[in-house]
Fold this sequence. Notes:
The protein is mostly beta strands and 155 residues long. The protein has one helix and 13 strands, in the order αβββββββββββββ.
Amino acid sequence: MSAFVLALLFACVEDEEATYAQYNGDDESVSVEVGVDTRYVVEDDGTEVPESVSVPLMSSTGTVDIGTGTVTPSAGPIGTVHSVIVEVASDYADDVDRVTVRTASDGRGEDEYELDRDSAGEGYWVFELESQGEEDEVRTDTLTFFLYAEVDSEE
């Protein structure tokens, strides 16, 4: 009898894994040059900062600007740590439950990484990505941003 009760308990426990639907449009990408010198821009106050590359993140229909995906620096030698930041506009920040970035480069294939939600700023997602490769390798990587909203499961 106890085996029956135990089996019944396990049958009631569901393995609920979240289901997500893509919230932004397709092909929202930036290019990052790997294996080259880091480029800098001069701020208004005269300080040099690494150049960034950004892309607007649009709604799934492409009609509403919901945020920005940015990578800093936009170029650098092998071993450079690139800050990947997604800023979701405050009107849509509560809708986005998961953010990933997919990297793609010739000869190296694709990888996908989860960004971390910033604890202090709702709508900010961050990830540090170190460029890998051979010492003399030069290439252009494509980073594509994906925003997701959790889909309510039907019971």
